[in-house]
Specification:
Strand content: 25-35%
Number of strands: 19
Strand order of the largest sheet: 10-11-12-9-3-13
Radius of gyration: 21 Å
Order of helices and strands: EEHEEHEEEHEEHEEEHEHHEEEEEEH
Distance between the termini: 54 Å
Largest sheet: 6 strands, mixed
Helix content: 10-25%
């Protein structure tokens, strides 16, 4: 079972008519798409041992054509984009002036358009911001959600299955290619063999049928989220709150380029990276599953009588059991006995030590230490 406090008002996917499909509950972030197709653990095993396909058509998609698209997006985001070319992709953030994360987007470049996809319900806010920042740039951002829908194929047999359908998977992370199935983007998570397909929305059922007929096992949002937890990849608005900075949630490197020029919020990111430490860190929690309830997204993580963090995504994993992502204070000992949740959702929790990021000396402090030495 996956639990969260967020909700989505997305239009129900036509794939909910697939035999065996169970809709994601309305209180979860992926309402509107399949939660599972009969057995979420079988679906997770298919995604790790063979190949599965997940309906993620609830994601919002934006298109940014125009001659200035990359230099313009370069100035607005945390990522280095000024020299992007067709076939490349990445992740990026939009921060506020204090370095807090406002938007997370996955970007791909086709011949003449930048394609951005983001969390369900976040697209309209992102588009409003982009339109307000156009000024004299030659760009025409628009909502492309009615045009394109996201499917994710993942598992060790992904490349073979797509190859049988005449599709060649890019070898580089986030690499983008056109295909008969739609735009194809190689993804490094929730598994390194994952591929996102941005398919024409009016062909969604057709492409799904071709993939499943070729051997892809239908899998729901439950399976995808469980594997994302395992891969320690955060989700905006679920594993983050209004105070989250990129340094806390593993977005340095994947979505933040530390060597690019000025952008809004950069000072905080650079300062924390070079001379400080993030106040919190994203970790994987193992939860006591002996009861019927699990904590909800946004509920507290406590050490004794002191609140030390917040619960993010929660899911039942096919091998790890009940797990969650959580933002906890850096001061929390790795071996601490924690309690996650509130009221009748409280359960014992323990940090997975392998999920705690290694910390060396901050670059600025290391440089100062060498000078003093």
């Amino acid at each position: 079972m996956t639990t969260a406090a967020a909700s989505s008002t997305a239009t129900p996917s036509p794939l909910l008519g697939t035999p065996g499909a169970v809709a994601t509950p309305d209180e979860l972030p992926d309402a509107g798409v399949g939660w599972h197709y009969g057995d979420p653990f079988v679906e997770q095993r298919a995604a790790t041992r063979s190949v599965a396909v997940v309906d993620r058509s609830n994601r919002d998609v934006l298109a940014v054509p125009g001659a200035d698209r990359w230099t313009w997006l370069h100035t607005l985001t945390s990522q280095h984009l000024s020299e992007f070319a067709a076939g490349l992709g990445t992740e990026a953030l939009i921060l506020d002036a204090n370095g807090h994360v406002e938007q997370h987007l996955v970007i791909g470049q086709s011949a003449d358009t930048a394609w951005l996809d983001t969390e369900p319900g976040k697209g309209s806010g992102l588009l409003t911001y982009l339109e307000a920042m156009r000024f004299w740039s030659e760009v025409e951002p628009r909502d492309a959600t009615p045009e394109l829908a996201v499917l994710t194929v993942l598992g060790p047999d992904t490349a073979t299955l797509l190859g049988d359908l005449g599709v060649t998977v890019p070898t580089t992370a986030y690499g983008l290619a056109d295909s008969d199935l739609g735009l194809l983007r190689r993804m490094p998570w929730p598994r390194p063999d994952a591929v996102d397909l941005l398919v024409p929305r009016d062909r969604l059922a057709e492409v799904w049928q071709r993939l499943t007929a070729a051997g892809a096992h239908p899998a729901g949002s439950w399976a995808f989220e469980a594997l994302r937890i395992e891969s320690l990849r955060p989700r905006l608005g679920v594993d983050t709150d209004e105070r989250t900075i990129p340094n806390e949630v593993n977005w340095i490197g994947s979505a933040v380029h530390l060597d690019k020029g000025c952008y809004r919020g950069q000072e905080t990111v650079a300062k924390v990276h070079n001379i400080g430490r993030p106040p919190r860190r994203l970790v994987l929690l193992h939860l006591d599953g002996s009861g019927n309830e699990l904590p909800l997204t946004g509920e507290s993580v406590a050490l004794g009588d002191r609140v030390v963090g917040r619960v993010g995504t929660v899911a039942q994993h096919h091998e790890l059991g009940p797990v969650a992502l959580a933002l906890v204070k850096r001061s929390v000992p790795v071996d601490a006995e924690l309690v996650a949740g509130a009221d009748d959702h409280q359960v014992q929790a323990a940090v997975d030590p392998d999920s705690v990021p290694a910390e060396g000396l901050a670059p600025g402090r290391e440089a100062a230490s060498k000078l003093r030495g």
